[in-house]
Amino acid sequence: MDKQTFLERYAVDRHNSCSLKWDLLEERYGRSDLVAMWVADMDFKVCDAITQALQERVDHGVYGYTYIPDEFYDAFFDWERRNHGVEFKREWVRSTTNIVQALFHLIQIYTEPDDTVAILTPVFTPFHYSVRDCGRRLVTVPLTYENGHFDVDVARFEEAIVDSKAKLYIHCNPHNPAGRMWTEEEQAALFEVCRRHGVLIVNDEVHQDFVWEGRHHVSALNVAGGAYRDIMVTVNSGSKTFNIAGLIQSMVIITDEKLREKYDAFASMNMVTEYNLLGLAATTAGYAGGQEWFDALKQVIWDNYVYLRDRLAAEAPEIVVCELEATYLAFVDLAGILNGRTTREVALDRCGLAVNWGETFGVDYGSFVRLNLATTPDNIKRTVDALVAEARAVRG
């Protein structure tokens, strides 16, 4: 399927559809006329396989208790094998609602109140508040940044781990919003620090399928031939890949038996719930029948990024668009056009954009915004038009 065919078939106006992204602009940003470039879901219909699977369930008309069928495991495992070279076993997989809920549970399972949890910033906002809200201490380790590119300082990471006596590290792979696809060498260096100091790794790979320019996602589960699986718990979902976040179906993957036992003991008292019938059906269908749709989607997203990056570089070079190795989220530094104003005054008031504010990903990133590229080319053009116009106005 080519890009134009994809857009004709799947692009959709989400206004008046109970969309958090589009219908709560007034509540969240104070205006309803903004271009919604924030929360990480997509402005595209799901693949036909998911629609058909859900329609069959609706036609059946019964939404009773269910279980995880063989087809779910087969489809998920085959996708992981084909796209990421990861082999799974059924006994490793636990079902959960969503990634953020899983983070809250894992922090409570594997740490005690007042223990320290480490993260690399800038990073997904719930990494911050899940730690604090669970009564744990948060230590943030800033990534190094230069000319739109983020790197990890392993020595600085180890110093923070040792000084804080951290018990857990939450790993974002790929890294949202820095756009990094961590190499095997980078991950091995981080994980070896964790091994040396008795730190458990919670590994979030929900953006694993959005990797660009010929790169391949290196699952933390495969680093050094799987050498760190015994100190790792992974969370994943088809929610980002197939645009089904509202169906709340995610997975926790625990390869180590002792870590599984601890998880199951907590779950038996705190996670007594049934499976989501429609979430399982949609996820299974996506993994089994969504490859062609997904490949075309990726072309739309990558072209959106290239348009944003290249046009701003040519017409508003004061604005820095960070390199995008992975995810569909562009991290953009507006420092060059703020001219003494706040990021909100520029992005929201002047440009009419609803964005995720950089400061929510880390205290050092107040001049940054995160833009969601999983939208139509027209929304990207409107966004770039506004930013270019503002840059020109600042120049006088």
Descriptive account of the structure:
- It is a single chain.
- The chain has 396 residues and is α/β, with parallel strands linked by helices.
- Helices cover 45% and strands 15% of the residues.
- It is built from 16 helices and 15 strands.
- A seven-stranded mixed sheet has the order 2-10-9-8-7-3-4, with helices on both faces.
- β11 and β12 (329-333) form a beta hairpin.
- α5 (70-84) packs across α12.
- The longest helix has 25 residues, at 291-315.
- The model has no long low-confidence stretch (mean pLDDT 97).
Keywords:
396 residues, alpha/beta, seven-stranded mixed sheet, four-stranded antiparallel sheet, 45% helix, 15% strand
H/I helix tally = 16
Separation of the first and last Cα atoms? 45 Å
What structural category arises from helix and sheet content?
alpha/beta
Instruction: Report Rg.
Output: 21 Å
> Helical amount among residues, as a percent range?
40-55%
Total beta strand runs? 15
Q: Describe the global form.
A: globular
Overall average pLDDT: 97
For this structure, the quaternary state is: single chain
* Largest sheet entry: 7 strands, mixed
* Side-by-side strand order of the widest sheet: 2-10-9-8-7-3-4
Low-confidence stretches: none
Strand content: 15-25%
